[in-house]
Design a protein that fits this description.
This protein is α+β, with helices and mostly antiparallel strands. 61% of the residues lie in helices and 12% in strands.
Length: 115
């Protein structure tokens, strides 16, 4: 494997990659208010515990969840700070759409004024 391919394979997922999957977004929603064990999280999805654990690993690699071991159980909690990057990125598009809607409003209102 070339050095570039090796680096790509070793790269950690970023926030955007991590939330691109609907299952991972659902996991984040479940963890908003509470820390939960993987067995409880698995009960919310039609997939194996191993599959849920893989999704949790991607979220953890992106810094979106923290894992801690309690006895034989692994519990997960949301770490919302990395979502600020997403919020900042989306804020640009909020301004974009606000400007577009303002222009549309001005266009519609100027047409109403014409006979």
């Amino acid at each position: 494997m070339s050095n570039a391919n090796s680096k790509a394979a070793d790269a950690k997922p970023d926030v955007f990659q991590a939330i691109s999957d609907p299952t991972r977004r659902s996991l984040l929603q479940l963890l908003v208010d509470q820390e939960l064990p993987v067995t409880t999280l698995t009960g919310h999805f039609p997939m194996s515990r191993t599959a849920v654990s893989k999704h949790l690993r991607i979220l953890a690699d992106a810094g979106l969840v923290k894992e801690r071991k309690v006895g034989r159980e692994r519990r997960y909690r949301l770490e919302p700070e990395p979502l600020l990057e997403l919020k900042r990125w989306l804020a640009y598009y909020d301004r974009y759409w606000d400007n577009r809607l303002l222009l549309l409003k001005q266009l519609v209102e100027s047409d109403e004024d014409e006979p």
